[in-house]
């Protein structure tokens, strides 16, 4: 399935992306780097994803975070900094749903869903890779 990205972020250069990776202390997977260079965040259409075993799913992907976006809370660095105490250490928030729960890149490039509504945040595997995550988006 092809997706469209509405409200993409400002053009991102490979150099700026490398600077952000250094700031975050991560090396992003190639498929996610390509997405950031092409769109730098935004809202996907279609936007629905089923997260196996997670409460309240299917859910939506409201916004993919980016770099240098005009809304600070849509930024990768801002979300990592603000949410550091609420998410597992190996997770980098890359998107949120309309309820404020998170989609994160985890160790090995997996995409996981973090349910922040639970007293103990639940962590659910969504897809093995970022590209596989995008392929799971449906109407």
Describe, in plain words, how this protein is organized in 3D.
With 139 residues, the chain is an alpha+beta fold. It has one domain (4-136): SMI1/KNR4-like, CATH 3.40.1580. It is 25% helix and 23% strand. The protein has 4 helices and 9 strands; from the N terminus they run E-H-H-E-E-E-E-H-E-E-E-E-H. Strands 5-6-7-8-9 form a 5-stranded antiparallel β-sheet. A two-stranded antiparallel ribbon has the order 1-2. A hairpin with a 6-residue loop joins strand 8 (111-115) and strand 9 (122-127).
Number of strand segments: 9
Q: State the fourth-level CATH superfamily.
A: SMI1/KNR4-like
Helix percentage range: 25-40%
Rough shape? globular
Indicate the low-confidence ranges by residue numbers: none
Strand order of the largest sheet: 5-6-7-8-9
Q: How many angstroms does the end-to-end distance come to?
A: 10 Å
Number of helices: 4
Work out the strand percent.
Answer: 15-25%
Order of helices and strands: EHHEEEEHEEEEH
The top level CATH class name: Alpha Beta
**Radius of gyration, taken over Cα atoms and rounded to an integer in Å:** 14 Å
